Structure formats: structure tokens, C-alpha cells
Amino acid sequence: MEGHKRRNGTMRQRKYQIKARFYVFLSLFLAVALGVTAYVLFSQDEIDLAPSKEIEQGFMITMAARAYISNEELRYEDTYFAGGYPPDDIGVCTDVVWKAFEGIDVSIKDLVDADTYYYPKAYVDVISIRDTNIDFRLVPQLERFFERNSKVLSTDVDNLIVWQAGDIVTFESSHVAIVSPFRNLWGRSYVIQHGKDPAAEEDRLFAADGMKVSGHFRWDENAVKKILWNWPIEEQEEAKLYIDIER
Predict the structure, then answer these.
(1) Is the pLDDT reported for residue 97 higher than 60?
(2) Which residues, including other chains, have CB under 8 Å from residue 28's CB and lie 6 or more apart?
(3) What is the pTM of this model?
């Protein structure tokens, strides 16, 4: 009888210990969640939230990027293609970007080709020989293009509010990805990328493959017009032949 009481007492004690641990973990989880929420809400005095147009633009970019990586036959292969564009089942990290921008009817290839042609001095340290078959698929060229034609934002991965879906992020000028609307427990954004097979939407913003963020950009919806208008006047009519936009 006495032994039975002791066993019951021990079981109740273990039960209470399990409950106590559960409440400790629950409290820690709630503290983290509330902390992230508070950071997002009270950081607005330091940086404005993305305007509604940018949010819609980001949504369309991410949807196109997701559609691209959803191809189960897609495999990573770093190959040069005449004409520039690879087949649908072959790609690298930069292909996620131009495919994503098709979601907002922007041709990254056309714009990179034009910008590198009319402003070669801006690319002199990243391009030795201009090649329209590959320039738009190389990270250094893309990074320079976005530096020149997009909003340049903070690269601090802990500045949670500045990261929005559809942003472009580069890692040490050798890898590029699209920022996802998903976030991890700590509030950091996921990225949509193809650094290796399979292409995926994953929690890799912080030190992706050991690489630190080198660039963070948000596409300016007026960038196409700005690029076109800044070209030499005599060249603008020719430009309109392959970029569908009016001055």
C-alpha cells in the first residue's frame, strides 16, 4: 500500500514537471512572437512600410518565381546558350530572377542589354567583353544593374521590416535570389532560389551557403521609363523597337 502511494506520488510529480516544462517553452515562444511583432510595429518610425503598389508588385514577382521553381524537371546546369535563354528544364540562380520579373511584364534581358550597351563605363569593373547571350544571367552584372536602376535597401538581415516579398537579394556578388513572403520563427524572410538542386523556397537569407548578403534591392516600377529616357535621344526610337513602352 505504501509503495503504491509512493508510485502515485512520483507519477504526479513527473506530470507536474512535464506541465512546467511545457509552460516554460510556451512562454518563450510567445515572448519571441510578441518581440518580433513589436519590432515590426515600432520600427516604422525608422523605415516606412512598402507602399501598396510595391506590395502588389512583390506578390506578382514571387508568384512567377514560385511557378518557375515548381517545374519538377528543372535542374541546375551552368551552360552558355546562344540567344541567351536556357530551355525550361535547365537553370541557375539568375534564371529565377528574370523568370520572376516576367510576372510584372519586365524583360530583364532587354534592360540589361540596353544598360550595358549605353553605359559601358558603369559596368567596366564587372564586364570585360559585353555578351548579350550571358550578361543577364551573371550575378555581378545583375547586381550592378539593380544598384543602378532599383531602390537600394539595407542588407541587415535582422532589420526585419525592410525585407519585403519580391525584393532581390545578392550574396557576395556570386549568388542571387528573390525574397519570399514566408518568414521563419525569428521573423527573417525566406528566399526563392536555385543555388543547387532542387530549386526551392527556403530559410536561407541568413548566410546562405555561408555567404553574406552583399545587395538588397526593390524594383522601381518607373525604372523602365527612367532607363529609356536617359538614353541618348537619337537612340531612343531604336530602343522602343524591343522595349514596349512610350516616352
Answers:
(1) yes
(2) none
(3) 0.73
